[in-house]
Each structure stands twice: as structure tokens, then as C-alpha cells.
Amino acid sequence: MEIVEKPVNNSEKRNTSDDICEDCGAAVAEGRVGCLKLFEEILAKEFSDYRYGKIHRLTVDAYSLQHPDAYMRSAKSFVAHLTGIYAALESEDALVVNQTVQKWLSTNPKIDKPARLPKQKGNLNVTFIHNAVDADEHGKRVREWAQDVWSVWSEQHALAKQLISEATTKINKN
Fold it and tell me: Mapping DSSP to helix (H, G, I), strand (E, B) and coil, where does residue 77 land?
């Protein structure tokens, strides 16, 4: 997949709107379709090499928060991705937090997805991690990308913490 470089000045070739992902702003050939192709290439690398796969969940959560219409349609998927990025970036034990939330979600709790989600999607996107030269750089870039995305979702930070608290209380009760 071709990543389309943004022009430095007006005399250079301009990107067409077809070369910009409508969701995250990635400058990539074929826009949203091309963005998904880049994401799928990254997922293939994460599935085929454990060194890349260690950060897979955070990759999916960051991409989902930048593409909520496709990946956060239901309240459950909203909660899973919002709390997943919170767990990875803000908690001491992301695995335990994610497992607890998944158990809680499997009980079909009554949850509502906020009507208003961030319009701005962050300064970084999937193109930032696509060309990492090795697994270490990939991991660093995914974390930096996720932190950028998480900062855009600042209005939802308290909600993520509240949802994790509800999940923990409910699961520990049983």
C-alpha cells in the first residue's frame, strides 16, 4: 500500500480527497480503503511474529478509537476499546483489567455508548507505525500513536475508569 506524502509547498502535487482516510486523516492511496489495507498489513505482521504481536491489543484499540463508526458501533465494542487503551496506558496490569472487562461484558451489562465522540482523531495514525524498521521501533510507535489517540479522548478518561471499576466490582462479587 502506498503512503501518500503530504506536500511541503503549493508547487508540489496535492493529495486528492480520495487519498485521505475520512476517519483518521491518514494520507494514503485510496483513502479509507487504503488505511484499512495498511492496518491489515500491520495485523498480519503482528500475527506472524510474536515480537510485533506483543502490542497487538493496543494497535487494535488505537485504530478502533480513530475509526469508531466501523469498530465501535455497539456499546460493548465501545467499552472494550476505550477500556483497552486505558488499561494499556494507565494501569499496572492491562491483561487483568482486559480480562475482567471481557468477563463483565459477557454478562450483558446495561451500558450506553456516549452520543458524542471526539471529532478530532489525533496527530498520528496508522501510517506512523506502518514503516517501523523492527519490532522495538514498532512497539514504541504503537505506544506513541496510542498515547496521541488517548489524549484526544480525554473527555472519556473518567468514563473508562468508571467502567473498569464497575466491571471489577461486578466480577469480584461473583
Answer: helix
User: Domain residue spans in the chain?
Assistant: 51-173
Give CA–CA dist 54/74, Å, rounded: 26
| Bridge partner list, 48 | none
pTM listed for this prediction? 0.89
In order of 9, 34, 58, 165, the CA distances from 16 in angstroms are 15, 13, 30, 45
Question: What tens digit of pLDDT does each residue of 65-108 get?
Answer: 999 999 999 999 999 999 999 999 999 999 999 999 999 999 99
The three grid cell numbers given for residue 62, joined into one nine-digit string = 488505537
CB-count exposure of residue 6 (10 Å: 0-12, 13-18, 19+): exposed
Cβ-contact 34, 89 below 8 angstroms? no
Say if residues 118 and 155 touch (Cβ distance below 8 Å): yes
> In the block, which residue shows the cell 454478562?
107
One-letter amino acid for residue 105 of the chain: L
Residues 6+ apart with CB under 8 A from 92: none
Return d(Cα 146, Cα 84) in angstroms, integer: 11
3-state helix, strand, coil in the chain (%, to 5): 65, 0, 35
The confidence score (pLDDT) of residue 6 equals 45
